[in-house]
Write a structure and sequence with these properties.
Layout (H helix, E strand, L loop, with lengths): L4 E5 H15 L2 E5 L1 H6 L2 H8 L5 E4 L2 H9 L6 E3 L9 H6 L3 E4 L2 H9 L6 E6 L11 H14 L2 E7 L12 H13 L5 E5 L1 H6 L7 E2 L25 E13 L4 E2 L5 E2 L4 E6 L16 E4 L2 E6 L7 E4 L11 E5 L5 H7 L4 H6 L6 E4 L2
Parallel strand pairs: 1-18, 2-3, 2-9, 3-4, 4-5, 5-6, 6-7, 7-8, 8-9
Antiparallel strand pairs: 1-10, 10-13, 10-17, 11-12, 13-16, 14-15, 14-17, 15-16
Bound molecules: pyridoxal-5'-phosphate.
Pyridoxal-5'-phosphate binds next to loops.
């Protein structure tokens, strides 16, 4: 059996969820869209269900997968419905529903619904992706109430730059939100992971942690609360071939690495078809036989090469950690010029093995 696999530590996941609640004192929707950022949405939801205030996903397809697996907790659809014909299913399964656009509001007004909805009314406070314009916000709220089709409304918005700790934009967005919600007495929800970790003064009845649940920092710099996160996923494999090369020999596709001296090279069963980033360059850290080493040459589809020259204990069958508790996914993301979110979401082909359930 191919030795590539992703170990998922559900105990660490619960620790990270509790951290989000502890540092905010708020109710927390665990964001498990995109198959829980590659960690497996059903298993993650099962591991959190006893304590979680609810879950958030991107679409009804993801929400239905949770219900089919027996998850009874509240599930928020972060983009609401894409077509009005989803409304009966939203009612049937008690999903909570974002309204981010006037067309969704109109669809609700026109729908015949057997039960009232729980709506999270989204304001565009400055990100300019989705969300109602501040000038339309009050009216949308009043129209939802007047429709008679809504049992509860939560006021929400989303930060564009909360991962930039010295950027004033998040404060500006909070100010826009506070102004737009003046006079509306309802719960609020503003905070994603970087805001939970790095912006202690933002008040929000509900928080929406995603990446932090999985133990990766959203920041490009060290941050005290993020340092308390525990990595959940360990992507590992084994050395499947060892070779000694003299100086001057190329390694891998395109001869992107040439041995500057005699070297010992290990080939690892892991490639970009597993989600390991093809753009990780020579020098990207790996852990082999318990010791830090580095990637050499181009990552190929199913294999990559690492340096064993100074790791004498490494041999055929040695375990290699590509990211996890020792090699942080955020460090691999920096090396490959991406973000840990994308590394996790790109995971495929490797079996996931769960512990700590
Ligand atoms: C994905 C998402 C989140 C979670 O973001 P993280 O940065 O992963 O914490 C929160 N809110 C909304 C609306 C989202 O789409």
């Amino acid at each position: 059996m191919r030795p590539a696999r992703a170990l998922i530590d559900l105990q660490a996941l619960r620790h990270n969820y509790q951290l989000a609640r502890e540092v905010t004192g708020a109710k927390a929707l665990a964001v498990i869209k995109a198959d829980a950022y590659g960690h497996g949405a059903v298993r993650v939801a099962q591991a959190l269900e006893a304590e979680a205030d609810g879950f958030a996903v991107a679409c009804i397809e993801e929400a239905l997968e949770l219900r089919a697996a027996g998850i009874r907790a509240p599930v928020l659809l972060l983009e609401g419905f894409f077509e009005a014909d989803e409304l009966p299913l939203i009612i049937e399964h008690d999903f909570w529903c974002v309204v981010h656009s006037l067309w969704q509001l109109e669809a609700i007004e026109q729908a015949r619904l057997s039960k009232p909805l729980t709506i999270w009314l989204k304001l565009d406070s400055g990100m300019h992706r989705v969300g109602l314009h501040p000038k339309d916000y009050h009216e949308a709220y009043q129209r939802l109430l007047a429709s008679g089709k809504v049992a509860k409304i939560v006021l929400m918005s989303h930060f564009a730059r909360a991962d930039e700790l010295d950027c004033v934009r998040s404060d500006e967005q909070v100010a826009v939100f506070q102004a737009a919600r003046q006079g509306l007495s309802a719960e609020s929800s503003l905070r994603n992971s970087p805001s939970v970790l790095g912006w202690p003064n933002v008040s929000s009845d509900w928080v929406r942690p995603g990446i932090m649940l999985y133990g990766a920092t959203p920041f490009g710099e060290d941050q005290a609360v993020a340092a308390r996160l525990q990595p959940v996923m360990t992507l590992e494999s084994k050395v499947i071939c060892v070779r000694e090369l003299p100086a001057g020999e190329p390694v891998g596709y395109g001869a992107k690495f040439i041995t500057p001296k005699p070297m010992r090279i290990g080939v690892v069963a892991m490639g970009y078809a597993d989600g390991y980033p093809r753009h990780a360059p020579t020098g990207t850290p790996v852990l082999v036989a318990g010791q830090r080493s580095q990637l050499l040459g181009r990552v190929s589809m199913d294999m990559l090469c690492i340096d064993l020259t100074d790791v004498p204990q490494a041999r055929l069958g040695s375990t290699v950690e590509l990211w996890g508790k020792n090699i942080l996914a955020s460090d691999i993301a920096v090396a490959a010029e991406t973000i840990p979110y994308q590394l996790f979401c790109n995971l495929r082909r490797v079996p996931r093995l769960y512990s700590g359930a």
